[in-house]
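To fix ideas at the outset, we first show an illustrative case, written as a sequence plus integers encoding its fold:
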Amino acid sequence: MNIRKIKTGVLAAVLCLSFSSCGQKVDDTDPDAVYKPQSQAATASSAASNKSTESSDKKQTEDSQEEEKKTGTTSVHLVCAGDNLIHDNIYVDAQNDDGSYDFSKCYAPCKRLLEGADIAILNQETLVNDAFEPSTYPIFSTPTEDGDAVVDLGFNVISMSNNHVLDKGAEGLLNSLDYWDSKGVIHYGAYRDEEDSETIRTTEINGIKFAFLGYMEHTNGFFLDGDEGKVVYLGDTETVKRQIQEADKIADVVVVSCHYGTEIMNEINDMQVTLTPQLVEWGADLIIGTQAHALSTCEYLDKPDGGKAFVYYGLGNFFSTMYDTKSLVGIVGDLDIVKNYDTDEITIENVKAIPVISHFEATYYDSMWYNCAVYPMNDYTDDLMNKNFMHWDGFNWDSVNQCLSYVPEEFLSIE
């Protein structure tokens, strides 16, 4: 994508005025002396004003020249994670004796994956709010302490484009938006109303401007029937296309989160194959896929301007306790966005797909869940594997590697 150059305005000409009275001594006995100091003061004021204008114009010129003279590159390190899907197993394990919650231990093993990230995006699969009691599948509601934990971990951009975003109707959506507003993070993919949905979220870091858009395939049969709350579905291609094109005009990098894919399938479906290149054609630079709860492949795609976009078709779950061996293995995307001042080009470099594993243990006799957490695969030991509740149902290193076989070797990074 070409970078828009900063245009330097034409500098206003500075008028130099000459005053014959400058430097003359004023005679206090002269009846006209009362006027002469005023004339001199006006002259001095005009001169000072001109000097200030010259200084301001010179500063603007220097700033513009400095901007135009930039050479080399600048970059932004971006990390993105899949579905943060909070089942009752997780929030029951996180509850303290006094009724409060502490989710920090759940995410602590992955802290290092976010260190050094300028932008860290998480797909929050459940509504985070305190207006409704915590609830689990099929209608989710998650305590705000979970949101506190992921923000403390380092996530500063939250995607809300998912099929559970209307689980508690407009009230649940608006309360969740209120919560994310209170955390000071960028959030997108679900909105307060029509006007809010047309306000593209942007941020500029290290001289690179980003825009964020999010769309979902469906919302489990729930729909909004009033003026409050707004989501945009992938099937509304007219709106999707228009918004991506508008974002492309105002940003260097357009990030599009797509909640698409077939549940518990590593393979991508026909919709993903057909729609994804269209998103790139309209102006998307980075596409982040979620929904399937199972990881999928990733690749570069050609852009109309000759550049390259990148797509993670499915990151899988970041954290969940789903009862399927495929759902326990996800990937965290990791890459650099590089801006070249000499060529006005944006490139996506050093792309990685870092595997993570959701862990949970249980006692069969009383169904008590404990030690729910998400680990980088490189830190997941044989002992943890043997303790994982799903180990009895075939979750092992073979099943993990089977999932990872869908990730191209050039991007797969065990670290």
DSSP finds eleven helices and 14 strands in the chain. The mean pLDDT is 88. The CA atoms of residues 385 and 396 lie 7 Å apart. The longest strand covers residues 345-363.
